[in-house]
Write a structure and sequence with these properties.
By secondary structure, this protein is mainly alpha-helical. It has one domain. It is about 65% helix and about 0% strand.
Length: about 200
Amino acid sequence: MKAIVKGIKKDYALAKELYATGVYDAMYLAGLVADDGAMSKEDLQTWVEDAYCPALAESTVPWVAAEGRFGFELAALWVESPAEMVAAAGWSTYCALVALHPDNELDRGLMTSLLARVGRSIQSQPDRVRYCMNSFVSCVGTYVVELTDAAMATAEAMGAVVVVMEGTACKIRSPKEMIEKVRARGTIGRKRKTVKC
């Protein structure tokens, strides 16, 4: 797929056509070749509503949203959704945003309030939302220097997180372990150029 992406680079119209097929591989490719800056709120809302599996809802759509113009706005909207996949997409979009944006572009008060929300509500959330909230704590702790300690405290408060992984071999990682691993490497706060892979 990387060779295909390299040949296409960015193509707004093609990405929309690919995503509209409803075919998983085409939809995933759409996220890799999307012209993120050209995507409208309406485009992204359609994509999140049509994301029928975790890989699309938690990777493809958040990647494009976070690297585009409406990431913060849509993340805030999506986390409030009663639809599990949409809410999961919102938390994953926040994960991507903290990985990409310099700390001075992040609303520290918002991030702190989101950590508090995770701490008090994660255990009552549906599986995919719980999974993405857990990832959010890890991302804040590893990418936002001033909030590393707050993320560690949140991880402690929320306790062990169990997610049914639909028969896969995937395991949910403890935010404390993830943050401590990154801290040991000395790379807390190192941002990413892209979240797409």
